Amino acid sequence: ARQQARAKAQAPAIARDGKRIQVFANISSIADAQIAIAQGAEGVGLLRTELLYLDRTSSPTEAEQFEIYRAIAQILANRSLIIRTLDVGGDKPLSYLGLQAETNPFLGWRGIRFCLDRPELFKTQLRAILRASSGYQIKVMFPTIATLAELQAAKAIWAEAQTELSQAGISFDKNIEIGIMIEIPSAVAIADKLASEVNFFSIGTNDLSQYIMAADRTNPKVAPLADAFHPAVLQAVQKTVQAAHHAGLWVGLCGELAAEPLAVPILLGLGLDELSLNPQSIPQIKQIISQLTTQEAEAIAHSAMQLDSATQVKSFISDSPLFKG
Ligand code: PEP
Ligand code: MG
Question: For an engineered disulfide with 45, which of 24, 168, 286, 325 has Cβ 3.0 to 4.6 Å away?
Fold first, then answer.
């Protein structure tokens, strides 16, 4: 029975009409990777690398990072591993990196903005990711992209890291895919242009919601406004999926919305190719996917998008036969 349960956990998520949607895990450590596999993750859609830089007095070296990325890749074997480059700043300040408290940290020096201003620190991480990629399904992902210029600058440093490794005779996956988080409204607006520069998108609804609603996700007085179920956020998700598919890219979603049972019909209906979520929620999300057809999900998504509030969207879905019956 235990073996049967394990086999069931490892089964892919397939809707009733046969449509597949990949269910990946969000992780931050080697221990998380093991949990993710046990919970049936088909891959890792978001490895947050901030943890490697916390609780220390200097940045992790290329060798230290390589060891950790490689250990996680080994646990995942032939599954995808999307490594997101450092996303400090905002609510994650780090004094040894010169990051100080700011008046508006979420509008401040964070994520790719910080890394592009510290190219040596950034390149060290990129070299570690490239070195770990040889023989594994690693992909790289840049956070907080707001402009085309940022993406192009990040790619230039990525190309430099590859040239350096090639010249040193160090092997890496020459076909490694690159992607970006879509989590800033400007990136949604120019998604068609960004799409021509990358292999995939992953939508970060945690940040996208707070930026669309102008409500700090860490401030309890206003955080409830930053609800990813709000039709304004759902429209941004829809627009991003359409731009990705129009350009022939696959698109995932790695914000907390992906772990919400009530969001499954919307996300399947909008055509997301992958969902990445905390490992504990994977079995439940797979189970809900298996109860829906794409057509039913599309109808639910279409109706939900016409509503006036996040609350209305959630009650509309919880009243549907899928959740009532
Ligand atoms: C997001 O913004 O939705 C996301 C997944 O990234 P983080 O929560 O690490 O900012
Ligand atoms: Mg984010």
Answer: 24
